[in-house]
Amino acid sequence: MPTTTYSTKTIQKIREPAYYGVKTEKNHKRAKSVPWVDVSDDDEKSKRNSLKRKNSIVNGNADHSRNGQNGHKNKKRRSSIQNGDTPQSKDLANSPGSSQSKRGHINGSGPSTPHTAKFKAVQEQRKQLPIAKGREALIEEINKNNVTILLGETGSGKTTQVPQYILESGLARNGMIAVTQPRKVAATSLAQRVAVEQNVSLGDLVGYAVRFDEKSSAQTRIKYLTDGMIVRELMSDPLLSNYSVIIVDEAHERTLRTDLLIANLKKIQAKRNPKTDPKGKGNADTSNPLKIVIMSATLDAEKFSKFYHNAKILYVKGRQHPVKIYHSAESQLDYTDAAMRTFFQIHTDQPPGDVLIFLPGQEDIESLQKSIELYAKQLPSDKSEVLTCTMFAAQEHSQNNKAFSPTPPNTRKCILATNIAETSITIPGIKYVIDTGKCKEKQYLARISGGGFDTLLTRDITKSSAMQRAGRAGREGTGACFRLYTEDAFNTMAVSGEPEILRCSLTSSILNLKCLGQNLEELDLMDKPDLDSMADLKPVASALKTLWLLGAIDNHQKLTPSGRQMALFPLEPQYACAVVASKEYGCTSEVLDIVSVLSASSKLFIDISEQRDAVTEARRKFRHPSGDHLTVLNAVKAYRDIAASENKHSRREWCRKHFLNERTFLEARDIREQLVVTCGRIGIDVSVSAKENEDLVIRSMGHGLAGNSAFLQADGTYKQTMGQTIVKVHPGSSLCDKKVPAIIYDDLMYTNQIYARGVSSIPKSFFLSLDAFKQRKA
Ligand SMILES: Nc1ncnc2c1ncn2[C@@H]1O[C@H](COP(=O)(O)OP(=O)(O)OP(=O)(O)O)[C@@H](O)[C@H]1O
User: Do domains 128-273+287-316 and 323-497 have the same CATH topology?
Assistant: First the structure.
């Protein structure tokens, strides 16, 4: 496509819709969901809102709720806290309990001198956030209620400010404030921002914890952490007694771990908080009560309120800066092409400002990145430069964080991201969002023929996602969001997605619950997965079967001692099982090498389609005849040798030459260190090595992957041992052109066929030694 043709095409197709914030609110009301106002603030509407805000009455006493005004029966439980007349927040820098006056400078990474221009600017910015006007009312409500549901528009200041208000008001005297996030990148970037606002070094007063990475200390009072990390903490501290306040942010995402957390928090609160009689007199231990705050911009607040015994719902209205929303006038079938045309249209016609493009997955991101870079080179020299960055879950953390780096002068940054950039985060400089309307979602695919597996399917986003995406613009100034779908398409989108607990594999979560002495079916969940035990079609039954195969639970579904050991590892249960089994086979060192690489966020082997022959040739060096697991091990050993003798530059060059991702090696090294600590806790000697006897390594992996195994059939395909599904070996596997009697594999990928990835050959006789297989036969 020549560069001249895209410049007008997209904009002709995109038109500004009739104002539709009101329609959105109506739709949500009808769906009994988010009472949202003004997603798409056009300038006029925004002015009108701010006028209204100035004129409205304070809702600090919590009884001027929307529903209250409408005569809703729930009126006492809802209130709006956006208004200007609320008792004003104290000057944060001087408020009691505020740490700012005691600390040093701001420079982005550590404290700086108080009262520098930058420090003052950040404090001024905080005061301007819509939520600041309701600070006192908000604190009062959180103080009065055990559970508070807080709905506030994207960018109103919930995630960064509420934890600080709670800290500064002294509401969390007995413990830390946890703020949970569904995603790593949000947890770390928010902690960074709040550390700057508090003028402290990251890891002191403000810290974070995500899988394989933590920055916190004994001084930490506000901790941003992924929902997965706090669910793991339940295993060592079932009452979460280190925390006084737990804020569940972006609760609308309804991740599996968020659902497990909110169910557990209900139980914990019943134990930790006083049971008050109708007259308000407490009769239980009050020494360490827990407060819960549930937050989101797009939440079914009523449902959460009902779940928590009619908890109070509060609203924060308004966003700091308006975001103009444009819809495509026609459907865009080729959304990557449409995204590219829109990007260059913005680059050609619009004022400076970085662009964030939402795409469903890594493949689309990488292909669009290439196209954008290619066309950017052909731009006239007087145009500003284009710098692309990518963000997706399978990319290493530090690489994702590059999107947050300042944009160089005379450059427009273009960030291509999946929905990991959809909620919570503020990427400085982003003024424009391009939303393709697509995402990838994990889905448990049940097979009528037996068994099932998680796979990623591309699908249309929900209204809630569309609003979150638009909300990434307009965080530092006015913004615009270009939706590559029609307004009608938006109107027909589901309000929110199906909770993960109803559509994903539950193996790891059920194992964690077993360690807490809980059964999924007994837990008071907001939405219960299908517990009908109709064999393997149901995720619960399938997860229990996998755990039984791993030997993590017995025939009565009771946790076994090795199941308890497996749960201690921050790994998928299959890999944890392989590590536990490696003790018996005397090959822990090798198994740790392999599972560390397999647990890293990005792939070790880089595939470049244009250099397929060179890639195949380079890989031959590591290729092991038994398959991909020992091929990984060979690469780890080779890298270790190089790392011992060569400098950083030569190491990097070696990796480049062999199409290996050095970042994966480095990440795997850190993961391995953490696994070594866990092994030490349960008496597994990590120095024990199989040496030349690599068959032992495959057998250990086989214990973990017994449920992911298949036998060769006469027609050359493989049939699952634990189901009827027919699988093929993925073309990227070192076993793809071989036929072996039995295989184990890491996962299945569903395209037009079902492919097994991460495949190794294993003796068929191995399965006869497994108790689970023996029992099954019997
Ligand atoms: N890293 C950052 N750099 C610059 N400004 C930031 C940063 N993080 C937050 N802000 C500012 O604080 C505002 C509020 O952010 P915050 O994340 O608290 O809002 P929110 O209401 O939680 O939004 P969302 O629902 O989208 O998560 C942003 O709009 C932005 O102006």
Answer: yes
Instruction: For residue 320, give the ligand 1 atom closest to its CA.
Output: 29
- The SS3 call for residue 320 is coil
How many whole angstroms from 161 Cα to the centroid of ligand 1?
9
Q: Which residues line ligand 1 (CB under 6 A)?
A: 129, 152, 154-161, 193, 297, 320, 423-424, 426, 428, 471, 475-476
* Residue 471 alpha carbon to ligand 1 centre in Å: 10
Best mutation site among 160, 197, 467 for ligand 1 pocket (most ligand atoms within 8 Å of CB): 160
CA dihedral 506, 507, 508, 509 (to 10 degrees): 40
ipTM of the complex: 0.98
> Helices (DSSP H) in 569-626: which residue ranges?
573-585, 588-599, 612-620
- Determine the Cα–Cα distance for residues 725 and 449; give it in Å rounded to an integer: 6
Alpha-carbon Rg for the chain, nearest whole angstrom, is 27
**Probe residue for ligand 1, chosen from 293, 426, 464, 468 as the CB with the greatest number of ligand atoms within 8 Å:** 426
Evaluated on CA atoms 593, 598, 602, 603, the torsion sign reads positive
Determine what percent of the chain falls in helix, strand and coil, rounding each to the nearest 5: 45, 15, 40
Let me know: does 550 contact 212? Beta carbons within 8 Å.
no
Helix (H), strand (E) at residue 152? strand 147-152
CA-CA distance, 712 to 724, in Å (whole number)?
12
Q: Which CATH architecture has domain 323-497?
A: 3-Layer(aba) Sandwich (3.40)
Closest residue by Cα to atom 25, ligand 1, is 154
> What residues pair up with 459 in beta bridges, in sequence order?
439
CA 214 to ligand 1 center in whole angstroms: 22
pTM score, whole prediction: 0.77
| Strand spans (E) along 484-521 | none
pLDDT tens digit sequence for 255-269: 989 999 999 999 999
What are the boundaries of each domain within the chain?
128-273+287-316, 323-497, 569-772
What 8-state DSSP symbol labels residue 253?
G
Of 2.40.50.100, 3.40.50.300, 3.30.420.40, 3.20.20.300, the CATH number of 128-273+287-316 is 3.40.50.300
Q: What is the pLDDT of residues 496-550, one digit of tens each?
A: 888 888 877 788 889 988 988 888 888 899 988 876 544 444 667 788 888 999 9
How far apart CA 563 and CA 580 sit, in angstroms, is 9
CA 439 to centroid of ligand 1, rounded, Å: 23
